[in-house]
Amino acid sequence: MDAAGPSRHATVTDEAEELALEAGHVAPTANGEGRDAGNVDGDGDAEMGAAVCSTLYLHNLNEKVQVDVMKQTLATLFKPYYPLQPIVAHGNARMKGQAFVSFRDKETAERAMLDVNEFPLYGKPVIIEFAKSRSDVVVKREDGDEALEKWQAERKEHKKATRNTNKWRLKQRAKHQAGATDEPTAAKKPRLQMPDEYLPPNNVLFVQNLPEGTTAEDLREVFEQYAGLQEIRTVPAKRDIAFVEFVDEATSAVAKDALHNFKIDGETKMKVTFARK
Fold this sequence. Notes:
This protein is α+β, with helices and mostly antiparallel strands. It has 8 helices and 12 strands. It folds into 2 domains: 8-172, RRM (RNA recognition motif) domain (Alpha-Beta Plaits); 196-274, RRM (RNA recognition motif) domain (Alpha-Beta Plaits, 2-Layer Sandwich). Residues 54-133, 203-277 form the RRM domain.
C-alpha cells in the first residue's frame, strides 16, 4: 500500500470483485452468457456450498437498477437484521446483478438468508448464498485496522496475480481478438425507480388508491387522529391520490404504519407510503 493509500472507490471495487471471485458463482449476463467469476485459485471452477459466514452473497439482482438505488433498497430490505455498512456492489460488467451484505454474526446472517432468499425485488427473485470469505467491514470489526490493511494488501496482490488467467477476462479478450463487435445500442429505457414501499422515511406521506369522491376533509378526519398533522394536499387532476404532511418523519411514520391498507370508505384499501423526494 503506497503512502497515500488506495481511494475509497478503488477499495470498494476491489472488494466487490474479490468477494465475487471467492463466491465461485457463474452469474448470467443479459444475453444469457455465463459471466464466470472464477474462484480464489483463479482456475475458473465454480465452488458452491460455502460454510456459514457473516457475509451474504446476493445475485440475480435486476441489472437495470442503478447501483446506489439497489444498495439503498437492500439496506431497507435487510434493516430488521441490522446489516453492517457499507453494502458492497459495483456496476461494472463483471459485478452487475451482484451484491454483498454483512452482518454482526453468522447467526444473524443465516437468519437473514433464510427469510429473504428468493424475495421478489424489482421483478426478480434475489438468490442468496454464504460468501466464501469475510468482507472488509467484518475483518475490521473482528480483527482490527491492522488486520484489515494486511487483508486488503493480500487481496490486491492476488488480483494482480490472477488478472491474466481469470476466465471471464480471457473470454472477453478472445471475443475482442476475434473481432466481435457490440450490438447497436438500443434506445435508452427509463431507469427503474425504487418501489414506494422501500422509500426512506420523511415527513410527507403519499396516499394512493383513494375511492372516488374522497375530499381533503375526509382525509383530515382520518389522519388528524395522529399527532403532528400539518397539511393535506389533494391533486385535482388525479383525484385518487393525495399528500399528507406531518411535522417530522417520526410522526408521519406512526400514521403510515397505522393507516396503510385502511378502508376509508369501508371497502377500498388506501395505500400509504413515504413520498418520493
